[in-house]
Amino acid sequence: MELKKLAYSLTVCKVASWEEINTSSEFFFIGKTDEELSLVCRTEDTPARTTEREDGWKAFRIQGVLDFSLVGILSGISGILAAQGIGIFAVSTFNTDYILVKEENFDRALDILAAEGYRIV
């Protein structure tokens, strides 16, 4: 399985309103529940006013389009990294999954996954 590194740093944050989000940014995810409005975005695109914020994330995506019938892909990656004490933050789209790892663990995470047979591009 092929994993593609994203070239930018990311921030995970909570915002008070939709108006705070720059929807013309190249990369972002929005999650809304009855409790919060969350945003994952490139660090330089983080709104000036956030209610909570965590910087220092890097990400890779699983290359290709993942069929909804596939089972265990995210579990496999998260299990390998968890066994080495590396936490993740995962975001899924219609096509694939994105795995965020804290910057200080990112290179080590990719090395571990490469040793387990994942191809890093």
Quick recap:
This protein has helices spanning 73-83, 103-115; strands at residues 2-5, 10-14, 28-32, 37-42, 52-62, 89-92, 97-102, 119-120. Helix content is 20%, strand content 36%.
**Averaging pLDDT over every residue, what do you get?**
90
User: Could you say what the CATH topology is called?
Assistant: VC0802-like
- CATH-scheme architecture: 2-Layer Sandwich
Briefly note the structural class of the backbone. Answer: alpha+beta
Unreliable spans are none
Q: Give the CA-based shape.
A: elongated
Which keywords apply here?
alpha+beta, 8 strands, 20% helix, single chain, 121 residues, VC0802-like, 8-stranded mixed beta sheet, 2 helices
What does this structure look like?
The protein is an alpha+beta fold. The protein has a single domain, classed as 2-Layer Sandwich (VC0802-like). It is 20% helix and 36% strand. It contains two helices and eight strands. The chain has helices at residues 73-83, 103-115; strands at residues 2-5, 10-14, 28-32, 37-42, 52-62, 89-92, 97-102, 119-120. Strands 1, 2, 3, 4, 5, 6, 7 and 8 form an eight-stranded mixed β-sheet that branches. The protein is elongated. 18% of the residues are buried. The model has no long low-confidence stretch (mean pLDDT 90).
